[in-house]
Specification:
Structural class: alpha+beta
Number of strands: 24
Distance between the termini: 61 Å
Helix content: 25-40%
Strand content: 15-25%
Oligomer: single chain
Length: 509
Amino acid sequence: MTKRLLVGIDVGTTSTKAVLFDQDGTLLAEAAQEYPTAYPHSGWAEQDPEDWWRATCATLTQIFADPRWDAAGVAAIGISCQAPSMAPVDQQGRPLAPALIWMDRRTEAQCDWLRDHVGEALISGINGGRVDPYYMAPKILWFKEQMADRYRATHQMLQANGYVVHKLCGAFTMDRSHGPITLLFDSRRGEWSEALLDHAQVEREKLPPLFDCATIVGEVTAAAATATGLAAGTPVIAGMTDGTAAGIEAGLVRTGDAVEMTGQSTVLLICNDAPYLGRDLIALGHAIPGKHLVVGALVASGGALRWFRDQLAKRELDRAAAEQVDPFDLLGTEAQQSPPGANRLLFLPYMYGERSPIWDSDARGVFFGLSLASQRRDMIRAIMEGAAYGLRHNIEVAAAGGFAVNSLACVGGGARSALWNQIKADVLQRPIRLPKAATGAPFGDAVVAAAAVGLYPSIETAVVTMVQPGAEFQPHPALATRYDALYQVYLGLYPAVRDSFKALAAVPE
């Protein structure tokens, strides 16, 4: 049987999504399943790794329950994920504690220790990036200090996709795209840094072996086949971060090409020929060996809209359930009734601390400019515009660091909103393009998987063949002056309330 089907799986922050493609990149079937995030204390964010696996099984079972799709025809499986996570497991791959996901901000004390005992200059010079709770190293140190018995029992610290890879094929792995977001990686060599591991006092044997994203690391076991509906023996590749997969989905193969991915967060990725070794932005690995990604990332831009949906849009949730439509589409329709600039209502999208470019765990969301004339539609539009202002801020910081954006694509769940795409084009005053198959990170997984099993001679060739251009959103020049003025107000808000954020964080729970 000729195997020309491809499965892409993305283990996201709010849900896992599985998608089936053919060799040309045509979407055949998709399924998604949400799961919870626990916030047991202020700044904490945990998930149960078994939720990732249960969602993977449920989505794959749903796809292959359709008699049109024969799992025996799947050539390979690629898996991407939210990043970084820290999921400690024993020798059998069983979770020893909840996974600390990228949103978790509990490790400020460990970050102080890293700055004092390792040094930010050494870390950024070898790994790239700054010391911050976002990264994996301080999470490992917290686990080592606070759960010493479980740390000693840990066989490997896995990423979210590494956990699912292990469940599928039994291998313990980590792909190289995750390397720079551990703070324990030599980004020039593409290997664990013995110097950083030694200074940080992290045992090398507790970290998985590293593989290029397109490496076949195992085959689906009989047990995993029964659980998922996949065929035993199907090749599984090492996979990649969701940002790396988004870059592939958008065709990022040339220096200066960029993509923004809006899901739970808004992430800007710029393709570069050398690793990023600065501190203002984030270094990330590319799926193509020899290429690298420079990243600017917010925490909760899409998450803020989801918060609004869950807390303030019961009417839309009920209507969406009755009509079987997406409640976000209903919110977008309402936001369209608010004019550009949301009637001078601004939103700081710092709903759970913030990453680049402000790097502040204490930052929180703010509506600025509320009046008795403000309407709900203005609040929804302000959330969308706040994400666009945050994206512009990261683009400007990247340009100041020598990483200019030549072209910009949009992918991820946010790219499904024509209004949001247009807002980004107008705030940035640059065209926004979408790939034709705007299915999110799973498409990037499928492209890399296709190259891994030889359906294409290289990832670059697979990108050229499978990634086709889609819609393009042009900026409205008449809105430039309005959005420029509002953006300057946006930039001034954080410095004005930074000390108040810190004072608020110091108030006892």
